[in-house]
Fold these 2 entries.
Entry 1:
Amino acid sequence: MDIAILGGTGKEGAGLGARWALAGHAILIGSRDAERAAAKAAELRERTGKPSITGHGNAEAARRGEIVVVALPATGLAATLPEAREACRGKVVVSTVVPLTFGGPRLFTPPPAGSSAEEVQALLPEARVVGAFHHIAAHELSATEHAIECDLLVCGADAAAKETAMELGRSMGLRPLDAGPLTNAGPVEGITAVLATINRRYKLKNSGIKITGP
Amino acid sequence: MDIAILGGTGKEGAGLGARWALAGHAILIGSRDAERAAAKAAELRERTGKPSITGHGNAEAARRGEIVVVALPATGLAATLPEAREACRGKVVVSTVVPLTFGGPRLFTPPPAGSSAEEVQALLPEARVVGAFHHIAAHELSATEHAIECDLLVCGADAAAKETAMELGRSMGLRPLDAGPLTNAGPVEGITAVLATINRRYKLKNSGIKITGP
């Protein structure tokens, strides 16, 4: 698969790109600044030994990708996504965005839409938006030599789009679980606030979540 | 400890009461209807073989308890808690309340305060409110012969109150984790929406959550 990662120069986006490159996918790193994207792509090619990692502007990455992953900061969606709207038409778009505000009165600060994934869907109305990969610590993604101890929670309206995201998770060794419709994205994204708090309180970098039962 | 459980005739409240009675605590089941509370208390005495389980009106249970557990429906807080306000002054109050709306457009429906625990704190301003025990399936609580496969996430402003809730968790074999301030109660309560969805999709009654890392 050709996977575009908007905001792919960030820790989470770059970590996902590295894992997927190692799993055999072609990665299109997107950034506001195409030169920064190219530099990050070169760094990831070096790190993974995989040649199929390239850098582009965000909209160009979205055009070239078969799947588009949105790994932008929560506050940057409205500025960045409209230029990618046409490129995302009909495509599976995976939002990994977490609406957290550090240093404010409240860590979890979802937008009026209810969640960042729902905001992505509102900005890309013709895309098949799925929320996933919020809980996989960047620190774990970059440590590519060991397995990630975290389940993959996937939510969205489109069952086939969810299955695509689940397959992307399996390709990096994660167990995917269907966490329901996109209206569950708020609770799914909120788990990241709990994990970030636990990381701080217990001096960790890599707390994760496992669902018991299934 | 003498533990009052407001809404203790419900599945979750009664399940917690049974587990705590078996751990050696005295349980005061509270209900709007003192007779229903007395009947549930008799049933739990029979089930657990523990004599120290009694039934009362909610306000009376709150007065008698050293710790007050709020296991009411999310929509019933404003109607029930004001009459218990004086009785809860200075006490540790544990909110297990989850703001879920089944059959509507959105499962997770927190109140304007941000979470049910924050609504409890607003209604009981002199109480030391903690959010906890949202994820322990009633089905698991009632199966008192086996250990519960779920971590206990505790949030709140008062460190000593949190420690009390953590100790209540340890007394039923749970591993407690500090999930931060009461402003994290929304994300903590939201996890129940994810678990309820997974229960439905995977035909389970007892999904739970484990935090990896700590």
Note: Chain A has a mean pLDDT of 96.
Entry 2:
Amino acid sequence: MLHIEFVTDLGAQVTVDVEGPDKLLEVQRQYGRLGWTSGTVPGGGYQFPLDNEPDFDWALIGARKWTNPDGEEMVIHKGLAYRRRELEAVDSRKMKLPAAVKYSRGARATDPEHVREKADGEFEYVTLAIFRGGRRQDRYAVPGSPRAAAPAASQPARPAPARPQPAPRAAPELEEGTPF
Amino acid sequence: MLHIEFVTDLGAQVTVDVEGPDKLLEVQRQYGRLGWTSGTVPGGGYQFPLDNEPDFDWALIGARKWTNPDGEEMVIHKGLAYRRRELEAVDSRKMKLPAAVKYSRGARATDPEHVREKADGEFEYVTLAIFRGGRRQDRYAVPGSPRAAAPAASQPARPAPARPQPAPRAAPELEEGTPF
Amino acid sequence: MLHIEFVTDLGAQVTVDVEGPDKLLEVQRQYGRLGWTSGTVPGGGYQFPLDNEPDFDWALIGARKWTNPDGEEMVIHKGLAYRRRELEAVDSRKMKLPAAVKYSRGARATDPEHVREKADGEFEYVTLAIFRGGRRQDRYAVPGSPRAAAPAASQPARPAPARPQPAPRAAPELEEGTPF
Amino acid sequence: MLHIEFVTDLGAQVTVDVEGPDKLLEVQRQYGRLGWTSGTVPGGGYQFPLDNEPDFDWALIGARKWTNPDGEEMVIHKGLAYRRRELEAVDSRKMKLPAAVKYSRGARATDPEHVREKADGEFEYVTLAIFRGGRRQDRYAVPGSPRAAAPAASQPARPAPARPQPAPRAAPELEEGTPF
Amino acid sequence: MLHIEFVTDLGAQVTVDVEGPDKLLEVQRQYGRLGWTSGTVPGGGYQFPLDNEPDFDWALIGARKWTNPDGEEMVIHKGLAYRRRELEAVDSRKMKLPAAVKYSRGARATDPEHVREKADGEFEYVTLAIFRGGRRQDRYAVPGSPRAAAPAASQPARPAPARPQPAPRAAPELEEGTPF
């Protein structure tokens, strides 16, 4: 038995029982569609593989897509709108970073210090998620997405092992030239 | 089975078992009427749709309405009084915000830094809730409110699905003119 | 079923199962007498009605009365002694506050910033509890106190509803003259 | 049923079910011997009665005794060594403190601000535990210690009440001459 | 019954039930291979015995080995890459430290203050783990490692006690010359 802790759309702290590890993402999707979130956004934002960006299921982190009145693609998370930005690959002597897509917003007065990142000048921003490198994980896709592999239903009917399987992850953030 | 974590009116940390997701708001109302709260007030305050303001059920967040000796409408939350303020719509080149109603109080010496907001001069305040934009959600209303839709009792008697349904939410806070 | 989280007299984090909401205060008294506490002291201290001060059951918050070698009445909470102070009513143009009794101590080097309050000069102090205004709640009294109403045992024998009842609370802290 | 939350020797957060309050210290000893800890060290360190110092069971807080290569008695807690210091009684006009034994170490760069205490000059230290005043509690002693009272086994065989009993505690820290 | 709290690779807070203390490391390995972590990295990093470094099972803390494009051995933990460094023994008048292996990375803007350590100049870094001194613990090794002792399967078939056994730990960090 598993138990997942959420913060609801009303800000309440609620734990939901989950039958097994293979049901976990399903429960996250189900409550994430209501705007419930689990855990805090990691400093610098969630990291996902770039190939997951086109059909990423934002419900997994309690967010949803939204098109603003100017027709821009945005993502809403806990009532705040994050703008989509494409970052080109960096290949300098000091830094090597593959291309990425980043969802971020301007910092607010009530954002704690450790989530703020500096941009040009005095401008500060907060990142929700960054998609960069790595290998695509179908389990992160919107269910039924044409890009995702055949669903579980098409697999042989033998009982799946409850034991979760290791999965590829996003490319680690690399810092070249650090002195240690 | 769900489990909701409260801080009681005596400051104790108490978890209450809840039979299913459809009973959650009922349990929040029941204990909220005692002044029990779940989770922390989000930085910048709770965000609700403006159309929920007239009959909002403050028990949902452990608060209650109160009229002060001068006849002003206020809301009490964890022993502190918040004053009701109407904010006009903003429609400038830098910012576009629909009309709102805000409940706030002056900051106290013991308020942590991340909940304080700056007003004119050195004055700082703390927001409990802001009602702005969005689409009304009947489930946030005081039970039996004439403005709310027909209650569940008038629906067909077939067992309701335990699975919660997605719901419209308050309008996201938009920042126009941010450089990313 | 309820579950209450304590910090024991040895600093351990322990959760205790409670049969129902009507047993909660009993469990708090039982473990509070051992010096176990639940939750953190609110910034600015617990707020209780003034009429509860004479026979307040300090075990409810894991504290106990203590008379120091100089014969002064004090309260011990988590190994630290708080001194009793009577505050006169304030009725000025800027502030209106009813009479109160406060239990406080000088700040220690290891007290976090958000619990410290400024007094005259550079002196800082920390408040455990303040009793001010409000309507007396018998359930906060030492069991068997002559001032408390007839105990539950003298009530008719029909099963009490498990649902907790709303209760009067301490007077909210009012800030007159705040500009919002 | 009780549940105690530990941080294991590998830093994992693990909760252990405990049959009743009378089994709690036994479970703390059992896991404490593995270096598991529950809760955080209180600011200024744990407070215990002075008479418990000679045979204190350090396993209760996940620590253990250790003699360093120079033959000094130390205590290891979460991989850090604390040195034993005897403090003489203070009896001045400003401060009255009974004799004590303190276990402390120099502050490290990664210690948070609220656990650091100032010594002479710029030197800062962190206290694990201070033994001062109070009345000895046999339940804190190493099981089988000759100084401890007769063990439970020698008591009459009637079932012990599950309800825990109030116990004497360490002398509170007194601040003389505070202006409130 | 035990319960271990994880943060999943998606940042969710999930608790997993564990049958008994003897199954705990197995569960940590199983979920750690997915990048799930339990608890926070201690300030200054995890401390392990030096002899555990060659075949340490990084899954125990939700990390994994990774060789970067330049052929360097690194460790990935929560999407960040840590570089391996060998530290020579220190034997000066002020400090005595045995040889060690350290895994660390440069500090990022969003790292909280208490995990940052100062290096030369203004450079700051964050340590994931340090292997120094102590006595090797086979239970920390990759299962099936040739350096590990014979596995449990080769032991007599009598039921193992559920009670966990004390185990040797890494050498404590010693500060010579501290004035207390």
Note: The first helix of chain A runs from residue 24 to 32.
